Amino acid sequence: MDRENKTYSMSIRVSEEELNKLKQAARLEAYASYSEFVRRTALIEAAKVINSTESGEHEKN
Predict the structure, then answer these.
(1) Backbone angles phi, psi at 48, to 5 degrees
(2) Separation between Cα atoms, residue 36 and residue 25, nearest integer Å
(3) What is the value of pTM for the model shown?
(4) Three-state DSSP class for 61?
(5) Do residues 56 and 41 lie in contact, with contact meaning Cβ atoms separated by under 8 Å?
(6) Cβ burial, residue 35 (10 Å; 0-12/13-18/19+)
(7) Residues 34 and 26: beta-carbon distance below 8 Å
(8) pLDDT band, residue 58 (cuts 50/70/90)
(9) Separation between Cα atoms, residue 47 and residue 53, nearest integer Å
(10) pLDDT for 54
(11) 12 Cβ neighbours under 8 A, 6+ residues apart
(12) Residue 60 pLDDT > 70, yes or no?
C-alpha cells in the first residue's frame, strides 16, 4: 500500500527581538527561510531529547 505523507502546520509566538535572531541565524546558516531553520533546529533538538530519554540520560529541567 502506498502511503501518502501528510504535512501539518504549527505556529509559535516570538518577540520581535527573537524573530530577528531567528532570521539572522537562518541567513548565517544559509537556510532558505527562517521557518526552515526553526523546523530543522527543532527536529535536531527533538531527536537529542528522544535519544537521551531512551538511554536514560535525560533530566527534566
Answers:
(1) -60, -45
(2) 11
(3) 0.72
(4) coil
(5) no
(6) middle
(7) yes
(8) low
(9) 10
(10) 86
(11) 38
(12) no
- CA Rg, the chain, in Å? 15
Contacts of 49 (CB under 8 A, 6+ apart): 58
Q: Reduced to 3 states, what is the DSSP secondary structure of residue 39?
A: helix
Residue with cell 527543532: 42
Look-up of cell digits 527536529:
43
Question: Which residue matches cell numbers 541565524?
Answer: 25
What's the mean pLDDT in 17-46? Answer: 96
Burial zone of 25 (CB within 10 Å; 0-12 exposed, 13-18 middle, 19+ buried): middle
CA distance 34 to 23: 5
